[in-house]
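User: Hello! I'm new to structural biology and keep hearing that structure can be predicted from sequence alone. Could you demonstrate with 2-keto-4-pentenoate hydratase? Please show me the input and the output so I can see what each looks like.

Assistant: Of course. The first part below is the input, the amino acid sequence of 2-keto-4-pentenoate hydratase. The second part is the output, the predicted structure written as tokens.
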Amino acid sequence: MTDHDSPGLPARIESAAARLTAAADSRTPCAPVREFLGHADIDAAYEVQRRVAAGRIAAGARVVGAKIGLTAPAVQQQFGVFRPDFGVLFDDMMYAHTEPLPLNRFLQPRAEGEIAFVLGRDIDRPGAGVADVLRATEFVLPAIEIVDSRITGWDLAITDTVADNASSGAFVLGTTPYPLSRLDLSRVGMVLQRDGEPVSFGAGHACLGSPVVAVAWLARELAAREQPLRAGDVVMSGALGPMVPIGGPGRYRLALDGLGEVEAVIEEETK
């Protein structure tokens, strides 16, 4: 008997979704949900994610895209989780370059440098590959993701982070679009600074070999689950280097070779 066939799974999925929703609403980290889901039932964890997301949509949130997590070896090593996952991006998670983010909206935030893809076409083939991603991408942007966890102390198994919407928090997009033509994203170097001091280094090849490869993986996963990527979606393609804890207010500036810069401004409260 697999975890997914085990008796009482629907009730345990509901319990996990309720725990994560309560943690998000109260801004109080909770115990891991793997006690309900086990360590390996990825499908059950995605069902928890779907239910929590459905609650947000019912409350008025709008889906604007998807994110890929756990792509960089440095991040996988940080958590001992060695496979990528994905989550949903909502409109209230999206910020622009230098737009203030209130620190109190997060529980345990960390920053990471990424490349965001903005799609001009649907990618709905189950066997989608790199060529499909290249054709569908209208432009890319430098981006900072503020990852967050509803799980106390970031104590994660793969089922915890999947259920918790791939540990999503917010994302900050640059304002100058770059076409993919003549760009080799695997060669893009990254430096993330906090208040002017370099705190994280990385490169495009750390993201499953290339961010384009990561987006192709996501497209196949979502098409297989009948939730394909659509024109207009923003895709956060995954970390290019180690994530950095956010312990208080500060300015996080990401510089990407050939793709400009973007800055996330973390404030105690928005003005």
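User: So the tokens describe the shape?

Assistant: Right, they're a compact way of writing down the 3D structure. Reading them back into a model, for example: The chain is about 25% helix and 30% strand.
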